[in-house]
Structures are given as C-alpha cells and as structure tokens.
C-alpha cells in the first residue's frame, strides 16, 4: 500500500515510517523542509508526489507549556491550517483513508479521570495549551463533516503524552520526559522544574502508539474519536524521582512554583481502542524510560557518566 506520513521525519513519524516500511508498504515520509502543509498548493503538490492510498496525518507544531505560552497564535493557525488542507486534498483526490492524530490537550481542563471520548466537548481546554487543543478539535469536526457530506473515510485518534527514543530534547520546547532526561543527564548538580510537581500525566511509549495507529488504520472506520493510552497515571513529582533513578541523577531538584502546573490531571480510558481494534499498550513506564535514556546518551556521549 502507498502510505503518506506527514511529519514523517519527526519523533512519532519516524517510528511509524520504520514500522510501515518493515511491513513492506511503499512509504512517502513528508518533511517540513520539503512541503509547507499550511499552504494549500504545497499540500496539493505533496499529494501529487505521494499518490497515497492511505494518509497518516502526524505533522504538528507543538511543544511543552513554555512553547505553547510563547506561540499560541502560531500553534492555533498552523495546526488548524494543516488539518484543513489535508482534509480538502484528500477529498478532492478521493483518498481511500485518512488517519488523523489529535491530542489529549483537546480535553477540557477539569475532565474527570480517566478521560473518556464522550467528555471531549464538556468544557474548554487548559489555558496554556488551549489554542493547540482547540485547533485539533476543529479538525475532528471537519473530519466528521467530510465523512457525512463527501464520504471521506477519516478516523481520529487521541494519544496521551508520548515519549521514547528520537523525542524532542530541545532546551525550551521539549515535553516533560525528554526535558527531565536532558536536565538530569546534562546537569548533575541542581535542576529547576516548573510548578509544584502535583499534576498527573499518563505516558505512552512511542512504539505502543505506532501499534495503535497501525491497528486503527487496518480495523477502524468510524467517525468517533478514539483514545490511545497506557492507563497509568503518575504525578510529575513521582515521575521526576523515577527519571532520577533511571539516569542516576543524585543532585537537587528545585520546584519553581511561580511557573504554571498545566492541566491538573491527565489520563485516558483506552477501552474503546481495545474493544474496536484490539489495542493495548505493553511497555511499562520504567522500561520505556530506560530505553529513552539509553538512546539519549548514545546521541550525546560527551554527557554520559564516566
């Protein structure tokens, strides 16, 4: 099958491309440097070049709390525009299937844990990532509308926080796990973390997410969104202690309570994914962290302990 993967050079995309190629698919990984998906003509050129039978839309402009606070307008515009262009080009070219990756940030700020798909419209997202989350929710609305009016077979998946090898370890826009790993490996003395450590998060290892995408592409063809998660909630303070154990960090952790905590709790119910297409996460958090830390140290050998 000819598969187009937008964001194919990114964190999740690179893992999905490797999986699809290993299974014998003809994969076209679209990268930002080659195609600007915020432009309709560029998106059309991509479809002409790729001639896809299935599209995995993973491309996004995204980051942690700091990056969301610094780029609310850009994150809203770019993510919404990319989704609009992908839907319209898939419609015009009668693409057989479109797999759209949303975000757990789309859920309302005070959603009861575990988040269930029917809770998605019960309120407004947490303020620091609302523009990004609302943009992704709008794409879900468009996908449903295109299915109803044009018969476009698109599905919408909501992974929880991802982590793993090849994640983004950038100093200013990384998510929490790569940020913790980078700080604890690179700065053995004292590190400063935002908030008070009380919020909770759920983390899904990247290979488990890829498994969910592949299963859904093969077995799921409905309009309703579906969560992908591991079903394990952990406080950020406890996560920091776990990452410290895995990295061997024995320095001091300082919590900067002048900075935001973000959403108070975040964990999803993945029952629907299990029932509809047989998805179940299999990688324990500690094991996934060990693999991620090992990869980071291989990429930055100068920072590894002697």
Give a short account of the largest sheet. Answer: 6 strands, parallel
Binned strand content: 15-25%
Placed side by side, the strands forming the largest sheet appear as: 2-1-3-4-5-9
Number of strands: 11
Question: Which secondary-structure class do the elements indicate?
Answer: alpha/beta
Question: Given the structure, what is the number of helices?
Answer: 10
Helix content: 40-55%
Structure description:
With 306 residues, this protein is an alpha/beta fold. It contains ten helices and eleven strands. The chain has helices at residues 11-22, 40-50, 65-70, 72-92, 130-150, 176-186, 206-219, 236-247, 271-277, 285-299; strands spanning 2-6, 26-30, 54-57, 97-101, 154-159, 161-163, 190-194, 200-205, 226-228, 233-235, 252-256. The strands form three sheets. Strands 2-1-3-4-5-9 form a six-stranded parallel β-sheet, with helices on both faces. A three-stranded mixed β-sheet has the order 6-8-10. Helix 6 (176-186) packs across helix 10 (285-299). It is globular. The relative contact order is 0.14.
Give the helices and strands, then pairings:
Layout: E1 2-6, H1 11-22, E2 26-30, H2 40-50, E3 54-57, H3 65-70, H4 72-92, E4 97-101, H5 130-150, E5 154-159, E6 161-163, H6 176-186, E7 190-194, E8 200-205, H7 206-219, E9 226-228, E10 233-235, H8 236-247, E11 252-256, H9 271-277, H10 285-299
Parallel strand pairs: 1-2, 1-3, 3-4, 4-5, 5-9, 6-8, 7-11
Antiparallel strand pairs: 8-10
């Amino acid at each position: 099958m000819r598969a187009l993967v937008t964001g194919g050079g990114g964190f999740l995309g690179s893992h999905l491309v490797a999986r699809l190629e290993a299974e014998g698919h003809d994969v076209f990984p679209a990268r930002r440097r080659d195609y600007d998906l915020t432009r309709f003509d560029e998106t059309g050129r991509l479809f002409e070049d790729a001639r896809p039978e299935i599209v995995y839309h993973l491309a996004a402009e995204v980051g942690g709390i700091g990056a969301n606070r610094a780029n609310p307008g850009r994150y809203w515009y770019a993510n919404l525009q990319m989704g609009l262009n992908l839907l319209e080009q898939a419609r015009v070219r009668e693409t057989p299937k479109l797999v759209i990756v949303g975000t757990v940030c789309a859920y309302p700020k005070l959603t009861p844990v575990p988040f269930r798909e029917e809770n998605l419209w019960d309120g407004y997202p947490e303020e620091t990532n609302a523009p990004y989350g609302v943009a992704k929710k709008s794409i879900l609305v468009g996908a449903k509308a295109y299915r109803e009016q044009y018969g476009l077979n698109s599905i919408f998946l909501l992974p929880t926080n991802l982590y793993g090898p090849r994640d983004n370890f950038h100093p200013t826009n990384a998510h929490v796990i790569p940020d913790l790993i980078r700080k604890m490996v690179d700065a053995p003395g004292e590190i400063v973390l935002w908030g008070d450590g009380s919020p909770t998060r759920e983390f899904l290892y990247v290979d488990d997410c890829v498994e969910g995408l592949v299963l859904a592409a093969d077995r799921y063809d409905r309009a309703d969104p579906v969560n992908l998660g591991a079903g394990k909630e952990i406080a950020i303070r406890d996560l920091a202690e776990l990452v410290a154990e895995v990295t061997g960090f024995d320095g001091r952790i300082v919590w900067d309570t002048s900075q935001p905590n973000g959403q108070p709790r975040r964990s999803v119910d993945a029952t629907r994914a299990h029932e509809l297409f047989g998805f179940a996460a299999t990688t324990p958090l500690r094991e996934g962290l060990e693999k991620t830390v090992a990869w980071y140290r291989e990429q930055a050998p100068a920072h590894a302990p002697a």
